[in-house]
Amino acid sequence: MNKYVLSAILSAGLASPALAGQGHCAGSDQSQIGQLIARFKAAIIAHDQQGLEALFVPDGGSWFEVLGEDAFDRFQARKPDHAALHAGGQLHLLRESLQRLVGRLDPAQFIRIHRSAIVRLDRVAEMQALFNRDHLLRLRDGTVLRASRTYVDVLRAALLANGAP
């Protein structure tokens, strides 16, 4: 079994490390593990074929799936190799770096605006220049984010290509 899938199963609390190592689980645990593995495999195959289709995010003692890039508003770095996904007004913490996420997201829909932030282009409502070539972005939900000068030129070109401000 893939070590990442096993890690997700263990952190989801569906099996104890001792049981997972021995391959012995209660019937309902084994069924839940099988279902979770099938969902992970489907998401991995979908990603390999078409890009990021879904993310599995921890929710208490289990995992749930956030489907489709349409649900993703923005990502922000929290600490090394962790990001916060803002989707549908909810916040989900991910064990994945922004660098890895930006490589998995559709570049026509998502863009890095700062070393600590990625936004969905159609969520940008307004872009305002600051004195130091940085910009402030106001998203449609009212959130204000800083776009650093390193990313501003690419951001502006992407917004113009999408017909946004």
From TrEMBL:
Residues 1-20 form the signal peptide. SUPFAM superfamilies: NTF2-like. Residues 74-161 form the HTH LytTR-type domain. Keywords: DNA-binding, Signal, Two-component regulatory system. It holds the Pfam family LytTR. GO terms for molecular function: DNA binding; phosphorelay response regulator activity. The keyword Nucleus does not apply. It comes from the Bacteria. The keyword DNA-binding applies. This is LytTr DNA-binding domain-containing protein. It comes from Frateuria terrea. The lineage of its organism: Bacteria, Pseudomonadati, Pseudomonadota, Gammaproteobacteria, Lysobacterales.
